[in-house]
Amino acid sequence: MSSPSPIRCLIACALISGGHGAITVTDVEFSVPATGNNGSLSGTSASSAFVDDIFLTSLTTTSNLGPARTFTVANGEVVVGVEAIVRSGAQHVNAEFGDQDTAADGNPNPFAEVGIGYPDLPVPLSVSESTDPAIQNAAISEAVASYSLTQGVDGEGPAYTFDVLFETGVVDNDAGADGEAEFVLFERGYNSPYNLRAIIGGTKENPIYSAVVVVPVSAQTGTGIYIDTNEIGGGQELAAFAVDASDFGIAEGQAIYGLSITSTGGGGADITAQFITASVEQQTSSPFVPEPSTGFLGLMGGVILISRRRRRAS
After folding, report:
1. Which element (helix H / strand E) includes 137?
2. pTM for the structure as a whole
3. Torsion angles phi and psi, residue 105, rounded to 5
4. SS3 content of the chain, % helix, strand, coil (to 5)
5. Binned average pLDDT, 10 residues per bin, the chain of 314 residues
6. I want to staple 89 with a disulfide (CB 3.0 to 4.6 A). Which of 36, 160, 215, 225 is the partner?
7. Residues 6 or more apart whose Cβ sits within 8 Å of residue 147
8. Cβ(170)–Cβ(276) under 8 Å?
């Protein structure tokens, strides 16, 4: 993947809704590969929305509960999910990719990554709508494992649930409210509610979940980044929501091995990206090893994200 100078998105004093303090992402940087199909598009409006991958490079957050902190992808401080499993409503959710996504930008679309279609061409829409679990789970897994802000899932209707699994466990860097959220999600369209649960044990087949964190549209915040992906007829804004591990009501020291995402709106939430900010103190010392009653599979770090932003080319 090419590495052009990152674009910096300054966020204007926006608050991220979580259960406790006010978390603000004040600076977001991402790169736009010169080899992709975005051309001169700026992503600042529906008419200039990105149609191919853009890649997160760093996040900076501030809070009334702690100092500002920057998390950088290159330093391993922002990480992604490694596997996705659709649990229910499979007919209502599919992997998504940019309208003009190609392998030339270093990141083929999720379906091409799992061997469907050519690596340098988008697969036909009929294939991207597949509900074959072997295709669906594999393609969504590729989408959630990408740093692209364009790739994700496309909700097609009423409720669906899918789990995103991590590589190592995530433990809150503070037992209570603090200024560093562990998880950040983007929803394409800024128009769909969803619920979150932390995966705190069990097995891959039968997870144990935490209490629910409800994410209405009113709790999400516009990012000022617009994308135009395969399933929509024009650019839509990405909305962000950040979660602190303590919001799930879990015990101090409890590791989180993944997130469960449920769309609760009639239109279907389009979850485009989810990230984890990887503080050393937020990671368990080793990957979780499944056991008969308490095991599971996990990933790395904690997350954080953004809100209403203004953009400025660096």
Report:
1. helix 133-144
2. 0.83
3. -90, 10
4. 10, 40, 50
5. 52 36 70 93 96 89 76 87 92 87 86 76 73 88 91 87 87 69 88 94 88 90 88 89 85 88 90 79 49 34 31 37
6. 160
7. 55, 56, 73, 78, 80, 275
8. yes
